Amino acid sequence: MTISPELISIGALFITMVGGFFYFGVNFGSRLGKLEGRVDGIEKDVLELKVALRELNNSVNNLANQVAMLMGKQMAFGNSPLQLTPAAVELIDEIDGAKVVSENYTSLSHRVFELGATTDYDVQVNAVQSVEEFMQNQDLNQVKKVLFNNGKTLNQVYEALGLLLRDKIFEERIWKNG
């Protein structure tokens, strides 16, 4: 029995192909394993970058708040309860804000509770709103003059006096922390 040259060529081609597939399969598996390792490493790097970015964002926000406070643009700082900044205390002094809150305390504090204060946070927010409503019915020419000369806004006055009112409400204990 003789084997034809075509059959030998086909056999050789078949053996070459099987060997190639085997080689390719082994190399592909090895390369795929390396690729999976690289992907895992990239995923870890991305997670680390996300954490670092979040920390950087927090740092930038804290820095921006500190700069605003130093520039006198921010009226309150800290965690609850918010505290008046030195700029807010100075503004309150310049516009005689403590006198305004003291002389109108009864109506201002009643309005805080009319607005539906049920928590400390509500007292804080409603105190600002109460002051704003009250101030809109007052002659604000002197206050506006101080604001203009110091680069402040009426909203900053409302916030500062609102926090002053909130503190007085808490001091008078007409509100139980809740």
Explain what this protein looks like in three dimensions.
This protein is mainly alpha-helical and 178 residues long. It folds into 2 domains: 1-70; 74-172, no CATH class. It is built from 7 helices and 2 strands; from the N terminus they run αββαααααα. The chain has helices at 5-70, 86-94, 97-103, 105-114, 120-135, 141-150, 154-172, and strands spanning 76-77, 83-84. A two-stranded antiparallel ribbon has the order 1-2. Helix 2 (86-94) crosses helix 7 and helix 5 crosses helix 7. It starts with a helix and ends in a 6-residue tail after the last helix. The mean pLDDT is 79.
Oligomer: single chain
- Fraction in beta strands: under 5%
Q: Give the uncertain stretches in residue-range form.
A: none
What's the alpha carbon Rg, rounded to whole Å?
A: 36 Å
The helix/strand series, from N terminus to C terminus, equals: HEEHHHHHH
Helix content: over 70%
Total beta-strand segments: 2
- Total domain units: 2
Mean pLDDT across every amino acid position: 79
Spatial sequence of strands, sheet with the most strands: 1-2
